[in-house]
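Quick entry, no commentary yet.
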Amino acid sequence: MGVVFGVLGPVTAWDGSGGVIALKGPRHRAVLARLIIARGRVVPVTRLVDDLWLDPPPDAVGAVRTFVAALRRALEPERPPRAPSRLLVTEGPGYALRVGVDGVDAWRFEQVVSAATRPAEESLRGLDEALGWWRGPAYADFADENWARAERSRLAELRLRAVERRAEAMLALGLAAEAVPDLDAHVAEHPWREETWRLLALALYRTGRQGDALAVLRRARTLLVEQLGIDPGPALRRLEDDILHQADHLDPGQDAASRAWARAADAYNRTVASSSWARLESTVGILRNLAMTGGGGLEAAREQRMAAIAAAEELGDAELTARVIGAYDVPAIWTRSDDPEQAAQVVAAAERTLAALPSGLNEAARARLMVTVALESRGGRTGRGREAALEAERIARDLDDPALLAFALNGVFMQTFHRAGLARRRDEIGAELVELSVRHDLVTYEVLGRLVRLQARSALADFAGADENAAAADGLAERYERPLVGVFTTWYRALRLAASDQVPAEEVEAAYRDAIARMHGSGMPGFEAGLPALTELSLRLREGQPAQTDEHTEWGPYIPWARPLVLLAEGRRKEAAVALRKAPDPPHDLLFEAMWCLAARAAIAVDDRETMERARDELAPAAEELAGAGSGLVTFGPVSRHLDDLDTALR
């Protein structure tokens, strides 16, 4: 990103690396502020003179030009002498600032607040970030200037509206108790805003504080009548009446659910002994459901899972431990572990429990342990995970247990990456998951099946089929509250654009920006790590450009196969050849073919024939697929094109 301007506080400018740009004196900043307020329109020099001085000096016009020249040097230090400025341009009788919406914090803030209706979680996240951009009152160093007054007032009103919209999002998410302190402070600072009083009273009511809610509304009435001589508006009057009559619509579904949860939890605590094994098994059920919520819930479930397993092992009952481990049947779609160390611990516990179980008894429990081994061994090279998955599938089919079979098929899917070119096999697994789930009402596994098919059909360039499964997955996610599904379908739709030669690069980049934003806070570090950098690389190669060379790029787990291309882009061919030779074989996961294609591209560039031959052999089974598209995230084009390039280089 280039220069960014800040006006939500003192007027400031930052360079592309986030460093503050020295803007010299107050009149330099005043010129800049005046041009930002004009939003790209030309401000005549005479207007600037009038705005900067009450009694302009004789050389005021020359002084303005001096200020502009100094600003240009500060904002574009690498601009060659006499080259026209790209930011602060001269047009006709004056100057204009040419910067995009992302270049001014106030403009970005306005976009966030004025955005069309979005899901409450996304809205809250965006407003939290946007409110954090404020460093003080807008245009703080020009509070007394007439030319800044209207814009300062407009932005101040916009900020108040943002605080209220944030509170609305919190209420929609069932965070009424968390919203109360902020609303209380807000109404104290801005007592004339009826909407804030309304939100505060509603938040109090939803936390069970009906009396406090009514007291707030009476305070608002007294203040408005005594200080302004006006009665409360219809929204406040209606809310007071609804609270007095305990109107049903004031109790949204999430609060009713919260009350039901509290009653059930209370009954459980009163009736089930604290030392009961049932508590341990129930804990795993709660963790399983918590993981389905995504974000913090997924992270919390992961953190507590090993504690539950350790507690079960301490009791010394292998069958109980098997139930505790196997009950965590959270569907998995991504083939890189979020916590490899914990995954290894889970596998070790599952293997210990398998060895301790009496042979020939409780085959379903054994199968669930084997699926756990398969899922937590994703990307492994030993073959144990695949062996365990296939054995679990056999047991599930013998027992004719649909839920167990769905779990086992997830394990089989996760182990269907032992070589390239297996997209059709994964599509078959996905299709069986969908059919099985529809027949037996296994909604969570129907979602999984749809996502598996989305990935597989993308690899096979069948985007009509992938579209159908993406739409079905989104429909299920909306109906059954599965927030993580949208992360994958948003990425898929960006991939869909990237795979087309007809879509402009700007449109593809915008789609990926949305996908990256949606990914943050998903609670899946194994998914997030390095993905933005890999995406940028795929887009650069799509446009025939070399790899990005920014030293701050976070490549995550993809660095061994990206680094040779980065070195080549920097002209360091010998170092690239060394880095390529040191790179390990790509892990057997959803980006297996993609990493081999990157290795192939580097090998051709440095004439590493051994790596070229290995890449050709590894990629040959996937000749009909799109490299990387099986991830549902990115693509590096047809594998056949990479194979043709390898064959040409090897002749």
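second:
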Amino acid sequence: MTQDEFGFNAHMGGTAVFALSFHPGDPASGKAMPTLDEAVIRAGWAIWSMAPRDGDPPGGDTLIGSFLTSEARIALIDARWNGDAGLRAAQALGVVVAATGAAMLVAVPDGDGMTLDAFLAAGATHILTPGADDAMIRAALKMADRHARRTLDVRRRRSHADGEVGEIHRWIADTIGRGHPCVAIVISLSRLDLVNAAHGRPAGNMLLRGVEARIQAAAAEAFGDGAIVARSGGAEFVMAGIAPPGEGRAIAETLEALLALPFQAGAVPIRLGVRLGLAEHRPGEDPGMLLTRAGEALRKARASDGAMLRFAHPGDAAPLDVLGADLHHAIERGEIDIVFQPQVAIATGRITGVEALARWRHPTLGPLGADPLFAAAERADLGLALSDHIQQIALQRAACWPATLAKLRLSINITAADVGRSGFARLFLDRVAASGFPLGRLTVEITETGLISELDRAAVVLGTLRAAGVRVAIDDFGTGYSSLAYLTSLPIDYLKLDRALVAEVDGSQRDRVVVRGVIGIATQLGMGIIAEGVETHEQAQLLGRLGCETYQGFLRAAPLDGPDLLAMVEEEMECAK
């Protein structure tokens, strides 16, 4: 638990609730009267609790910044003892709650109609009566969370349908065509690759969602309904809005300050480097010219002051150079380990195989996934040594599986560096033979981005492995180069749909058409389909109807160690009896 000058406490666990309580203290004991915090925690929620010491809400910027930093979907305002302070807080948070698609749950001081109207007008989406018990609090949180999820889902689908750069052009053209003054701001994040390397791609994706939410909030505050926000690719966003001449700089400065507040990656606060390019519309200028000037301003901002990623606390994360130095000793110390993520047949729900994934049990940073591990290895020129080590461990572990796991397939990742080294196919096959693991139950996976510059060599190497009985899968298909040449030039048994494609399968009709097209082409070519990152039953069912046979993801299990994998398969077999 941490505490800052505003009385802010973070209790991390499940989905987060941002709780703001206004309650009197007991002068005799110095203790605060009970709040809703304990009830929220009992209901299974993580809580970011702010209890202002003077009984008044902090400044609007502080309050909004704290809410955004929490990455919470629900703002809970406990106004039972101080309705006026609670209402001011609701009014301050109302805009950002609406802009981010979150929910605002208010515990009101009384049931008077005027009180309820005031909080609803401030932006409350759900109300708790003063005497609410645990069951009512739990139900209200569920309803608020459902509201936030649905709102965010609608906005996500809308952003995919309408938030493209082309839509930005159309919006600006319409705005200036109606004679409104327009401002465009291009936002670029610095060194997001280091976030991905230090904390993994899921953390990077979460940060991007948080950035977009803050930009949406800033747009709503500055422009009201007269604004549009879109991600223009990678770590870059565009915001445009209707604003009088001369006001653009103040809007950009406010946005810059909002994005400078730390984001949260798990329990680690991270500051991203941000650069902005601003342009205000000139007479006779079309949308392309306006955005080009904003882009030029952004390039000047980058050139004038090199952007760096900054962590809130120097000890929270290590730069790649430090990780690279640590990696030199990690292999010999036995810090590199393997976990297995189940692959599940959609038709039967049975586990049919696993993917071996590397984990670095870092002595000071804790568990690190494959992304920071291989990024550090690349920086330290240890990529081949690390790949050899991981393959060897995975094969040795799987070769010792008991009879219960004897029918599972094992998928092992190989890298572009592996493909490029002389004699790799024979080296790999010798390694498999030495382990004793059957070639007929082995799959090698390589990412499509690792193949683009080595297509001819990859065809030879993979062909040799396949001729020996090893199956071949293209990993992360659909988000890199996605060249159809892979499907016709390489000996492939499986395509693994990247989680970004899977996440859109229950989105718009256009998203499903893309996924159906990829699955259809692969099926016609005799390839199997494995979907990565499946998190819901709805996704699995939709993928099954589209022709996908197998999935892996948190719907069934996170990556497991050997004993946990064995226990899961034994339980599955017992249930099947």
